[in-house]
Amino acid sequence: MSQHLSVQVDDGDLVLLTDLYQLTMLQAYWKESMQERATFSLFFRKLPPTRRFMLACGQQHAAALASRLRFSSSALSQLAGTGKFDDAFLDWLAGWRFTGDIWTLPEGTPVFPNEPYMEVDAPIAEAQLLESLIMNLVQLETVLASKAVRLVMAARGRPVVDFGMRRMHGVDAAVRGVRAYRTAGLAATSNVLGGLRHDLEINGTMAHSYILAHDSEREAFRAFARHYPDTTLLVDTHDTLEGVRMVIELMAEEPDLRVSAVRLDSGDLGELAHRSRALLDEAGFEDIKIIASSGLDEFSIQELVEDGAPIDAFGVGTQMGVSADAPVIDLSYKLVEYAGIPRVKHSTGKVNLPGRKQLYRRRDAQGRYAGDIIANRDERSVDGEPMLVPLVQGGKLDASVMAMAVDARERVRSSLAEMPEALTRLAPGESDYPVELSEELKRLQQR
Amino acid sequence: MSQHLSVQVDDGDLVLLTDLYQLTMLQAYWKESMQERATFSLFFRKLPPTRRFMLACGQQHAAALASRLRFSSSALSQLAGTGKFDDAFLDWLAGWRFTGDIWTLPEGTPVFPNEPYMEVDAPIAEAQLLESLIMNLVQLETVLASKAVRLVMAARGRPVVDFGMRRMHGVDAAVRGVRAYRTAGLAATSNVLGGLRHDLEINGTMAHSYILAHDSEREAFRAFARHYPDTTLLVDTHDTLEGVRMVIELMAEEPDLRVSAVRLDSGDLGELAHRSRALLDEAGFEDIKIIASSGLDEFSIQELVEDGAPIDAFGVGTQMGVSADAPVIDLSYKLVEYAGIPRVKHSTGKVNLPGRKQLYRRRDAQGRYAGDIIANRDERSVDGEPMLVPLVQGGKLDASVMAMAVDARERVRSSLAEMPEALTRLAPGESDYPVELSEELKRLQQR
Question: Which reaction does it catalyse (chains A, B) (predicted)?
């Protein structure tokens, strides 16, 4: 085994989080003095079967990191150690920095197959190097936000809380996942570091182990409620309804105790919620809320909501934390132009769109999405709102554009209201949302 | 959006990668002066439908990190900022360290449902705090190693190379994933930082963009082969067999060029491999190898191998990188003993095994796995080899035990030969591998 125990990846090492061929190609470009400008386009070819749209997320974060990327002396000495690089090339890498432009969709924008959601224009050795890192960073947040928004839709306004840190894929997924969840509209997270970093309310309840470590459930409830006024008590360790009755008894015994909610974490959640609600209401505790968790996904939440289960908030973990039904999208980062000439790989059966592009979104008279048009970037008089914005220009992050990310959560909220109903259905199935190519792009593609 | 742009998680912040309730329960234990020793057991209840065993991985790494975990002053001030913790408790956290014992299976051990693969014995406020972090760390490496070993089995001795960094879930998954891949038996990775940190050979080929950026495929091949003797050329940008013919022509023109392999990345890989092999052999290049990639998983590799496709190595990415068919296992970390008394949650339909445990693996006369027995830890004369070892004792990592992790790759290799054939089949299905409870554990469970 490697004796590398720390899981810390310093900002200075981040530049090494790439595929080796990026660096060998870079050295080749450097040796060949190839430094014309290239454009790479980030997109995906198809939706997972269980998604009707993806929520573009992480691209502003990735662009911001790319604009600051450097080869630290530690990174350079690690590369030197591989024996694969010339000293003169490593010297050149020491001065490497991104000087190009990055266009992105604002985070939280619903996005469809073949739509450019990021375009990088830069000398080829700059744009090429970003490929692996950008894809890794964007894929994570996009996949998680696109799953999380489905839970938010299913809950129809009831708060959804992330309890999934323990089941996510490692440290970075858990921390940056909260950023995606915030964008998608989750109400809170149990994840302390994720919540602190990415400005989402942190909350939590108690674990079964706390109950079991006490001499009795009653002792455990009493102690926890004394420590934490307005806490949530986990009532299913032995028997859910007995647990609810015990909370009620305890509050009768100690009128100063304040409990804000009970949490159901096993069994038939709908049935137990109804019966718990009845017990609480009967005892005069109409204000004690019911939180449910236990392997929930968008379909079980939808069913509970449609059945009228009196559940006030949902805690979700495993299924959302890895986007279990669609843990990956086939993101591509393709060269579409070099030295002013549109380029494209001629793969059979795959759409490849040459040249620098812009995405336009059209709306109907009610403000609802009516369809998208993918066009050449400098094409005039295309119908609709241009969606890609120049977040990084000349290697510099535009703070005013970056600030759009602050509104990503609100953008998602309003998008959900502006999408055709077929896009917001949770069941697998095609939507007929129209994505067309502009006339000029069609002509360019045919050449 | 959060303005937290760095994705770096310092070792000093790692302690905050936890669920809030761990910290609120800790404060409760501290207020209640509950400091008896607890034992928590890490296990999973069932295999994903497409796995016949899991490869335990990451538990030594997680234990090593746990033994060094501290609340840095930065972590404490972030906690103070939440307003949820008393100053006196935060002072106590400043001195918090793990002083207990951690028993683990050696990494690379095949593991089955309900088997303890890690047990933590410590004062409850120490053992409790580790829950979320250990689960997050162990789950990632276990899920990825358990997927990767299936690709290794499918390839029957042909090298399997990780090309998946861009599709993994963020920075830590990509870097630590390579550690899991090394254990599982992959031959190499394209991931520079992952390979450097976790001691797996780094290699790579070239991207379509390099071909497209040159005036012709021939120019690109020539340039790259001059820069990198014995390189691999990617031949499918326009037409795979034309690409192979071009490599042959180029080598005829420039006898000094040396190419070690061609890479096929689209189309019918079996058919193209046969035809490419024929072209190369006919031209006298029997030593040029063929590498195939393009959405491969264990089933497509198995089919190619069984069909006798002349492919010398496989590059795999997307499916392996997120373990797409089984991205998560339902790991549990359960309190099984407190203050010397075995404890257990009485859930309907779930197996919960009280008390401190040991796992024994029995072998038949040929040295093959014959079945496992889960026993009480201090039980005598249980048949088989005891599998859990005390990696951390009194808060100190045992370097000689930790060194077992160096052999994890070899442990996996030999395990594959020692498992009953039913366990090594790739198709979904039950194996009848016996996992039993010892007589004493059965008695304890019934009490």
Answer: 5-phospho-alpha-D-ribose 1-diphosphate + nicotinate + ATP + H2O = nicotinate beta-D-ribonucleotide + ADP + phosphate + diphosphate
pLDDT at A123: 97
Nearest to A168 among B2, B136, B408 (CB): B136
Q: Which of B170, B209, B406 sits opposite A170 (nearest CB)?
A: B170
Q: Are A94 and A67 contacting, i.e. CB atoms less than 8 angstroms apart?
A: no
User: Which positions in chain B touch A106 (Cβ < 8 Å)?
Assistant: none
Is residue B369 a part of any domain in this protein?
Answer: no
Residue B93: both structure tokens together? 């956290």
Domain around A98:
11-146+326-446
A442 vs A440: CA distance, rounded Å: 5
Mark the ranges of chain B whose per-residue pLDDT is less than 70: 1-3, 347-349
Residue A6 lies in a domain: no
Q: How far apart are CA A316 and CA B56, in angstroms?
A: 26
Give me the pLDDT at residue B399, please: 86
Whether A4 maps to a domain, the answer reads: no
pLDDT at B213: 93
Sorted by sequence, the CB contacts under 8 Å of residue A290 that are 6+ apart come out as A261, A262, A263, A264, A273, A276, A277, A280, A310, A311, A312
Scored b (16 or more CB within 10 A) or e, B117-142 reads bbbbbbbbbbbbbbbbbbbbbbbbbb
Q: Could you report how far apart the first and last alpha carbons of chain B are, in Å?
A: 53
Assembly ipTM: 0.96
Round to whole Å and give the CA distance between B55 and B181: 11
Contact A175 B7 (CB under 8 A): yes
Using CB atoms within 10 A of its CB, is residue B218 exposed (0-12), middle (13-18) or buried (19+)? middle
Q: Quick check: is A30 in a domain?
A: yes
Q: Which of B297, B321, B345 finishes a domain?
A: B321
Test A207 with B21 for CB contact under 8 angstroms: yes
**pLDDT number for residue B3:** 61
Helix (H, G, I), strand (E, B) or coil at B425: coil
What is the amino acid identity at position A130?
L
Query: What does the block give as tokens for B110?
Result: 């095949």
Instruction: For residue B239, give Cα distances in angstroms to A397, B3, B266, B391.
Output: 40, 46, 10, 54
Q: Are residues B301 and B209 in the same domain?
A: yes
Q: Which residues of B touch A238 (CB under 8 A)?
A: 345-346
Quick check: A346 and B23 CB within 8 A? no
Q: How many angstroms separate the CA atoms of B47 and B329, rounded?
A: 7
Predicted pLDDT at B348:
64
Whether B160 and B299 share a structural domain = yes
**Do residue B91 and residue B213 come from a single domain?**
no
> A269 and A236, same structural domain?
yes
Tell whether A439 and A378 lie within a shared domain.
Answer: yes
Here the CATH number for the domain that contains residue A261 is: 3.20.20.70
Tell me the mean pLDDT per 10 residues along chain A, length 447: 77 96 97 96 96 96 95 97 97 98 97 97 97 98 98 98 97 97 98 97 94 95 95 95 97 93 97 98 98 97 98 96 96 95 78 93 95 96 95 93 83 94 92 93 91
Residue B94 sits in the same domain as residue B162: no
Q: Would you state the torsion angle of the CA atoms of residues A352, A355, A359, A360, taken in this order, to the nearest 10 degrees? A: -110
A397 lies in the same domain as A307: no
Burial class (CB in 10 A: 0-12, 13-18, 19+), B323: buried
CB atoms within 10 A of CB B238: 16
Q: Are residues B152 and B124 in the same domain?
A: no
Nearest to B204 among A8, A24, A333 (CB): A24
Number of domains in chain A: 2
Residues B37-73 pLDDT 10s: 999 999 999 999 999 999 999 999 999 999 999 999 9
pLDDT tens profile B103-130: 999 999 999 999 999 999 999 999 999 9
* Per-residue pLDDT reduced to its tens digit, B283-326: 999 999 999 999 999 999 999 999 999 999 999 999 999 999 99
